[in-house]
Amino acid sequence: MAKQAGSTTRGVRGSRTGRPIMALLDLLGRRWTLRILWELRDAPLTSRSLRTACDEVSPTVLQARLDDLREAGFVELGEGGGYGLTPLGRDLCETFMPLHRFAERWKGSSRLRGRDELRSR
Q1: H or E element, residue 20
Q2: What is the pLDDT of residues 71-104, one digit of tens each?
Q3: Distance CA 48, CA 62 (A)
Q4: Gap between the Cα atoms of 64 and 25, Å rounded
Q5: Residue limits of the HTH hxlR-type domain (predicted)?
Q6: Strands 83-85 and 75-77
Q7: What is the dihedral of CA 18, 21, 22, 28, to 10 degrees?
Q8: What are the phi and psi torsion angles at 85 (to 5°)?
Q9: N- or C-end of the chain: fewer Cβ atoms within 10 A?
């Protein structure tokens, strides 16, 4: 996507418009981004603890995603060295909660259990 003269915003993958929803979906669709936000939802974590919580994501990818999330205003580096959600980041995670509740109901449905049983054969 070509930048317009005087524009300081990043290009958004899959969108020529760069609308806010497209920019947000682009950011959230990057590998490990949602997992990092999810792991930070309850309390700040150090980089090492966050890496462990994220199934040993590579340090390079973790740092890149943390940089993206800090730039977007969702995550901040605390005085104690841990990463935590900003008020905006907490707001974003709250929007996930209805989806989380739905996923838990979906997981408990017989339809999904049947799929898991087929995969284990």
Answers
A1: helix 20-28
A2: 999 999 998 889 999 999 999 999 999 999 999 9
A3: 10
A4: 17
A5: 19-111
A6: antiparallel
A7: 130
A8: -80, 145
A9: C
Question: Global pTM?
Answer: 0.77
Average pLDDT over residues 40-51: 96
* CATH code, domain with 55: 1.10.10.10
The verdict on residue 20 lying in a domain is no
Does residue 66 lie in a domain region?
yes
Partnered with residue 83 across adjacent β-strands are: 45, 77
> Is residue 14, in this structure, part of any structural domain at all?
no
What 8-state DSSP symbol labels residue 44? -
Angstrom distance (rounded) from CA 69 to CA 61: 12
Q: Retrieve residue 45's tokens.
A: 């974590």
Task: Region of 70 please: left (phi>0), alpha (psi -120 to 50) or beta.
Answer: alpha
* DSSP secondary structure letter of residue 57: -
Q: What is the span of the domain harbouring residue 76? A: 32-114
- For residue range 1-29, what is the model confidence (pLDDT) as tens digits? 344 444 445 555 656 777 899 889 999 99
